[in-house]
Amino acid sequence: MAGRRRSPGLSRRSLIRAVGGTLVAVPWLAACGSAPDPNTVRIQYQQFGSGTVMRDYLLRVVQQLSSQRPDITIELVPLVAAEADYFTKNELMMSSPNVTPDLVYEDTFILKSDVAAGYLRPIDELVRDWPVWDELTAPSQRAVTYTDGKVYAVPTHTDTRALWYHTGVFEAAGIEQPWQPGSWEDLLAAARQIKERVPDVVPLNIFSGEPQGEKASMQGFEMLLYGTQTTLFDEASQKWVVGGQGFVDALQLIQTVYTEGLAPSLGDALNPNIGDTIYNSWLPEGRLGINLDGSWISQNWGAGAAGEWPEWWPTLQLATMPTQHGEPNPWAPGEVDFVTLAGGWSWAFPALSTKTDLAWEVLQQMMTTENALSMALADNQVTIRADVRAEPDYQGYSPTIDFFTDLGENAIYRPAVAAYPEVSARIQAAMGQVMTGGTTPEEAAATYDAAVTDLVGPDQVVEATA
Amino acid sequence: MTTTTAPPSSAAAERRPPRSRTVARGLPLVPAVVLLLVFMAGPVVYSVYLAFTNEALRGEGAAVTSLVGLDNFATALADPAFWNSVLLTLVFTLISAVIGQNLLGMALALLMRQSTKVVRAITGAVVIAAWILPEVVAGYLWVTFLAEDGSLNALLTGIGLPAQDWLVSVPIWAVAFANIWRGTAFTMLIYTAALAGISPEIRESAEMDGAGPVRRFTTITLPLLRQSIATNLMLITLQTLSVFGLIWIMTAGGPADASQTLPLYMYEQAFSYGQLGYGTAIALMLLLIGALASLAYLRLLPKEDKQ
To answer: Which domain of life, per UniProt (chain A) (predicted)?
Structure first.
């Protein structure tokens, strides 16, 4: 009896539930089925905060193409993300045929790793008869060639690294200019003098810790490590180096600057957006003395940039990063007593994309001498192309370009192997551990050694000789 | 022998409804279950599978995925960073959920029962506002409050106390407090509802028998709320174990892993280091910890409450 009384209510309720459920489900199912348009080329790149350099460049190319090829639609896919997140998002998207871009902007350090993962396709046949290929420098061609001898990307430019210092801060601290430290001790001495005489200024920034991603490894740690007698990767045996004194010494320097108050506070240093703070506020306002950073950073202050700062030169000046004790650099090509690392970016073609031919057409337009030149000027790039270097507009386009282009001849490149990005993440973890002062450099180095051995296998590591 | 007039256990017959009715009762669940199966079953099964593979996001391991058995779990159990995360997760859950959110929510519910309508409305609105704020906004608010040049330090230096960077010096406490602030509303709502279910006569008669407020709370309110307390503890423990966004915004697990709870460790392994298989294994272990905690709470309840 009770059952009979209840059943009408139940069925009404279940009907409502069923209808409601269907209403929710249908649009979802419909959304899953949408197929990508065969004439749309999706170009994916990292957007640095509010920067528009890449977007402007690509829009210009789109405009040029629209008259020649009105049937092609170009979709820009900017990923606004911190550096490490960009690579992760990129890899996740390239691993699915539904969302894969057709052309993707990749840092050359992650390129080999993505090739090994099978995300990218070789483009030997495309570049073989392409005149621009012969304009590229040999190191940049090597940077996009995998161990199987095939080419996987088109390199766009390179970059080098050095010490940027603020003349106003140096004057207030009473440090003689032009300044060129001859050793790590000189660098520390200058930072200590700034701390003592200009206490409200951050003396020295060295990017460090996991939130800074590859910036910490390359602009930070490796600029130190390659100034010691220890290297990261032994090119002769193709093995990772563990147990080196230089590794400990480099971590020791990080610990010294962060625990002595010579560096940004931990809260700032571990903020993934510290770069924005440095370029848009600390350097223009004279609140940072020395910044160990890349050749491109003046792109933040050019005409039309968000943080326009016409006086950046000569307010900022440059010095090379010295080796540990001022000794000749054992790792750099040529006889020099400084350290600089070179990286670079490239355009690559995801393996799952079905529109590589269209993407190649778009890329050729992007890479015309004129377009490459205007991008180099807007993005403060060190060019790798003979035709761009020969352009009168390129020569001396920025007060710093000759300095950084010259550094390129003695630049050190990161290990060009697939495991590098993962090893790099371990370096950032080791830096993070010593920054707080809770872990000694020896302990952090031992943790790194164990992690790398575990990562690449015991037969892929070698004990340091020095 | 011949006449068995006694109905076979009449009580049981009345309690057990006819089969058709049981099925009809389940009917409203069908769309939800179908949706779950369509959209969730695949990912759930796939993620369990992933936990036993060496699936990676980048590098040589990403091209070929193979089964590695229990390797991921063995690696985790041998990794000091994993145990650091387990410990931090337990500390975080204990401070934030079991102690902070639970006691504060109870206190607020008790106080609001005594207070006037206006006070109740205002307090309720303020507490619940913290709860409905998006996690990212709440996290950012707490960063601006606790940062080196944040408002807490401004207040402290204003009265002559030394400032410190709270997110660096006591990161796990900082995120735990932020989570208490955010989660108290949930507990308060559960306890307010439970308290409303206690009839005022019981309290009045206890008062007449001379029981003071403390005695009334311990011998009447608490025992009557037992079930709600267990439910609340179980829910907030499970919620707190998996908090990610708030901690990610405030400290990103740092400095140097000092606030890296299991969800953040899992994220780092899966997405910063690209070890998807290993990260998924950590996720399974987190699930296991949640299940163990739920079982523990269930055991705490006396038998008659479990039915």
So the answer is: Bacteria
